[in-house]
Amino acid sequence: MSLTSKSSVSSQDTTRSIIVTKVSLGLDEDTILRSLGHNYVSIDKVSRRYARDGQPIGSIQVDFKSDQQSMKIIEQGYILIDGKQYPARGFWPLICHRCQQEGHYASNCPKNPLTEERFNELIKMQQEQFAGMMNSFEAKWNARLSNLKTSSANSNMEKLVPIFKDLNTVCQQFFQQNGQMQQQLGSMVSRVQGVQTKSSNQ
């Protein structure tokens, strides 16, 4: 695996962003940011999320300056806003594999046109990311299972909890990665069809 691929896989293991749900529309971003600042020193930004029709929804994206605090929140499954617990899960922002910037797919990257060689490279990188996530989870799973003792059922159950949390995180990553990959491939197909249509009209 190339150095670029390793970096991509590593960036998917942790994240500085989380999605918080069941947040009242009456709470604006500045109010939430100030409240979070009391408990989370590495808080960076709060962004309200919107539906496709442009209407705000009861979810926010919270970004941190480091991944330590965000990963702890993901493990807990909640975040505190004004002393109240809100459901929280990890969010892995869309990152272009070509320029490493957020917010667009490699197929729409303004840096360089998409070639067949680059297309195949992107598909390979996606596959390596999936494999990396599975290998990382499998390693944690095996390590924790090896520490289980047959003498205490209660102790074993306590040790199984973080394993299931890891599995939940991996499932979230797979779901998000799958959605991003489908959109990316759809964008590629649209561009190819556009080129074909343009060529036919000439």
Automatic annotation (TrEMBL):
It comes from the Eukaryota. The keyword Electron transport does not apply. One of its GO terms (molecular function) is zinc ion binding. This is CCHC-type domain-containing protein. InterPro entries: Znf_CCHC, Znf_CCHC_sf. Residues 96-111 form the CCHC-type domain. Pfam families: zf-CCHC. SMART domains: ZnF_C2HC (SM00343). The keyword Coiled coil does not apply. Keywords: Metal-binding, Zinc, Zinc-finger.
